[in-house]
Design a protein that fits this description.
alpha+beta; six-stranded antiparallel beta sheet; 18% strand
């Protein structure tokens, strides 16, 4: 309570000085407000002090309880006795919505990686900055900012513009809006995105023609990448296709890398497209799948698993199916397996042994 004497003395001295020298209601009001604010400030200090003391007491109690529990647990050096808690793969997120998000992000990343090597040269130009925007078929979102030679990846924020401006870009036509110049990145009426140029000067017709030609170079690169994806990936899922599978597995087989061939067949599984996309995403994210999952048939997939990850991937796959069942997406899988235990094994025999293992697994489960 002693600290509250300070605002009382402050107010008393102020009133006394006003009484002897000059009194006005304005100055009296300011004095009252200042005294009130000073009192509230001192009160907050008193409250924070009490709170900090209570927090210290709680932390002390927690630390004592943790030490007590640790003293009761027998310490063992054997790693097999350690229990590693499993984290949820899906984190209660629907595989349908997750697969849609994954495909959208992958397409956006492909756009971004194709744009980076071909960004505009802004030296000796009147351009202050450039925004590269990705078009997903419906909306434009920010992808990359360029200022000089500095590139900054952006969050997928929507572009701030008028509806008629967006419609004009969707028609693959350039647009000048105040100090901004929008150039669509398109080829054969296929729109990949656009870039927006910022300047403090005015635009000329020659500027539009110049940057239109540069946009064509970007569009050709994106179109080539899109055509390559058609050759190597399945359109519906974005997974690596069968022809690419045989090329890669033959290269891996001929190398000295010790990798196992795993065939995964889904049986009586709904939403298989979305589930396979999620399996590929998490398998790559955890470092098991390398290039990713191969889709050989509509319900048959393949993976190349290094020896050191064989057991871990098996546990991961089991947890993946269990979580799907818990979320209301029941799935049954059959597994085929082949390794390179014998260096004299031929490639076609290695593939056939994996298929034979798969058929045996299917027959065993059916029985």
């Amino acid at each position: 309570m002693k600290r509250y004497v300070i605002p009382i003395l402050f107010f008393a001295i102020g009133v006394t000085l006003q009484f002897f020298f000059y009194f006005s209601w304005v100055s009296f009001t300011l004095l009252s407000i200042s005294t009130l604010l000073l009192g509230l400030f001192l009160y907050s200090l008193d409250f924070q002090t009490k709170e900090s003391i209570e927090t210290q007491i709680q932390n002390q109690n927690k630390s004592d309880s943790v030490l007590f529990v640790l003293d009761e647990i027998p310490l063992k050096d054997n790693a097999e006795n350690r229990v590693v808690p499993k984290e949820n793969i899906f984190a209660e997120e629907s595989p349908i919505m997750l697969a849609k998000s994954i495909r959208s992000k992958e397409d956006r990343i492909q756009f971004l990686e194709s744009i980076k090597p071909l960004v505009l040269d802004l030296q000796n130009t009147k351009i202050s900055s450039v925004l590269y925007a990705y078009f997903d078929g419906i909306h434009f979102t920010e992808s990359l900012w360029q200022k000089g030679s500095v590139l900054i990846e952006s969050e997928p924020n929507p572009i701030e513009w008028e509806i008629w401006e967006e419609d004009r870009i969707k028609e693959c036509l350039p647009l000048v809006s105040k100090n901004k110049l929008y150039i669509p990145i398109s080829i054969n009426q296929h729109l990949f995105g656009c870039f927006c140029l910022y300047t403090k000067e005015s635009w000329k017709d020659s500027d539009i023609q110049n940057y239109w030609e540069k946009a064509t170079v970007l569009a050709e690169s994106l179109f080539t990448q899109k055509e390559y994806s058609k050759v190597t990936k399945v359109f519906e899922t974005g997974l690596l296709n069968q022809s690419f599978f045989y090329n890669i597995t033959k290269t891996k087989f001929d190398s000295k890398e010790k990798e196992n061939l795993l065939l995964i067949k889904f049986i009586n599984t709904e939403y298989l497209k979305e589930i396979s996309i999620c399996l590929d995403h998490y398998g790559k994210k955890l470092g098991y799948l390398g290039l990713g999952l191969f889709q050989l048939e509509s319900d048959l997939f393949a993976a190349l698993i290094p020896n050191q990850f064989a057991d871990e991937f098996s546990n991961f796959l089991q947890q993946f199916v269990e979580e799907l069942d818990a979320m209301g997406f029941p799935s049954e899988i059959a597994i085929g397996f082949a390794n390179k235990a014998n260096q004299n094994t031929k490639f076609d025999i290695w593939i056939k042994s994996a298929y034979q293992s798969l058929e045996e697994n299917i027959q065993y489960n059916a029985a």
